[in-house]
Amino acid sequence: MKTLKYKASYVQYDMPMVSVRLSDEEKRRLKKRGRVSEVVREAVRMYLDSEDTAEVFERLGELQEKYRVSTTPEEMVRLIREDRRGDSGR
Predict the structure, then answer these.
(1) Residues of 41-72 as b/e, b for ≥16 C-beta within 10 angstroms?
(2) Which of 20, 15, 22 is nearest to 1 (CA)?
(3) Is 35 left (phi over 0), alpha (psi -120 to 50) or beta?
(4) pTM score
């Protein structure tokens, strides 16, 4: 656990720290959107979420290749029409 001196008080963090080098321009642009640490943390979260999403879609593509659905165009049109009516055909 790290202890950091911040504004004359001690704060303990259970999270690991990451250092990032930023140009003055990058820092200025980040500050326009809020506290740099918060903006960077949110950007990392968004990046990781997008990577997770990409993995899910990749896996979906693999499954769709492996388990091909054989629906004719006519059947697809019928299913879409039923879905639009809220009619399950039962």
Answers:
(1) eeeeeeeeeeeeeeeeeeeeeeeeeeeeeeee
(2) 15
(3) beta
(4) 0.56
pLDDT score for 69: 78
**pLDDT value, residue 11:** 59
Q: Is the dihedral of CA 70, 74, 78, 80 positive or negative?
A: positive
Q: What's the pLDDT score for residue 43? A: 94
What's residue 15's pLDDT? 77
DSSP string, 2-70: EEEEETTEEEEESSPP------HHHHHHHHTTS-HHHHHHHHHHHHHHHHHHHHHHHHHHHHHHHS---
Phi first, then psi, for residue 17 (nearest 5°) are -100, 145
pLDDT mean over 41-49: 95
Q: What are phi and psi of 16, to 5 degrees?
A: -70, 155
